[in-house]
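Tutorial, part two.
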Amino acid sequence: MILRYTLAVVLFAVIGSALIAASAGSLGEAGARGALLGAALASLGAIFGMAVLARSFERGPRQFYGAMMLGILGRMTLFCAALVYVGLRRPADYSLPAIALSLVGFFFVFQALEVGFVLKGSKGRTS
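Running the prediction step on this input gives:
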């Protein structure tokens, strides 16, 4: 399950990054770099979050919900740390709004994908 999910995340990230790179003229160089950074961070967060979730899938509902909360907290910590770092450091080659919008956009796409994989993996199992 985790391998298929990882491949799906990478596929969405590559397609999204290609679209970002194609629209680099309208985004500007800093905007494109920021959006690509957001896409990369959201992809890493999605893969690591699902890895934690997949480990707990067979262990019961209590561990599953704990892993789900740990995954959400870990992703939010990663995203906030990146935004705070870029916001405080203010590098000219990254756009903070582009990072934030890219993180949010990819996060919701990956969450929908994750819910689909979890529901597909839980069919036929009862707690």
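The helical segments are 2-22, 24-27, 29-56, 61-89, 96-122. In part three we will examine how such features are distributed along the chain.
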